[in-house]
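Action item from last week, closing it out:
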Amino acid sequence: MLDFFAASVRGKSAMKACLVGNLTQELGQTNPGIRSCCEMNFNQWISNTATMLKEAKQSHPPESDFDPESVANLILSLMQGSLLLAKAKQNVTVIEQNIEHCRAYLKSLFGPETTTGR
């Protein structure tokens, strides 16, 4: 998942923003229907990511317990915030750096022998 995100921001056809994130920022306060659709999209992403984290916990018991949904929220927030900063800076370096910070955090949850996050 992190590798996919990293690859999606490189090159000429790179993703520089998230439509759902942009719609939430621009219309979330004034259009309840759009806000609701955006929330459902984010909730589905969080649910899918939490499921992957639960499966990883079963396959590779973590060194310290964590709530998969909470970590999924963190990852989504990191991705959305990174896209916003990259857009403001007109530079994807912040995305690449934050992906590596996220990868290091996930490895710290599971221990050094696990490659979770790649």
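Closing note: The helical segments are 2-8, 19-27, 32-59, 68-89, 93-110.
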